[in-house]
Amino acid sequence: MQKKVVIGAMALCLTASGAGAAIAASSGPPTKHAKIDAVQKVQFKVNRYVKDALRWKKDVYAVKSGGTLTITNKANDGPHTFSVVNKKDLPRTVKQINNCQICQTIAQEHGADPNSEAPPTHFFVEDGVGQDTPPSVDKPGDSAFIGPNPGDNVTLTVTAKKGATLYFMCAIHPWMQAKVQVK
Prior knowledge:
There is one protein chain. By secondary structure, the chain is mostly beta strands. The chain contains three helices and 14 strands. The longest helix has 10 residues, at 101-110. The protein is globular. The termini are far apart.
């Protein structure tokens, strides 16, 4: 199954079990601190389907330039990444999700071993380069690893200029996509 290849490339989690539902959200007033949560709700019907709504809690977040984002794993489906990417690189089809090119790039930048379930070599990436300290979030190429346990989190400083839109995704679960509007 191709999903396992993408996830194996990240070497950071178990297996993804379905596509999440997009929930519309307004950006709301800008704040100095925004909270981004990975959430999950699973439904199933025996011998019919599994509906796994693993996703970011909202589609749009707003934060002031110089403010912070706290990304928290509130789901029960392994670790996540908060990875800023170009809008054009976001996977939009099942085929693109199952063979996510940007996900493989992000995995390499984090130093993930596709043959291991060990954590990545670098928990953070800034400007496409793995590092041990949190990046200042301002453009594609910035990424952070969020641990596998519910409650694991990371706080990042947003240094993008006012008016910028930062598109982000989870490189482990490529359908988890949203954006931050910098106010």
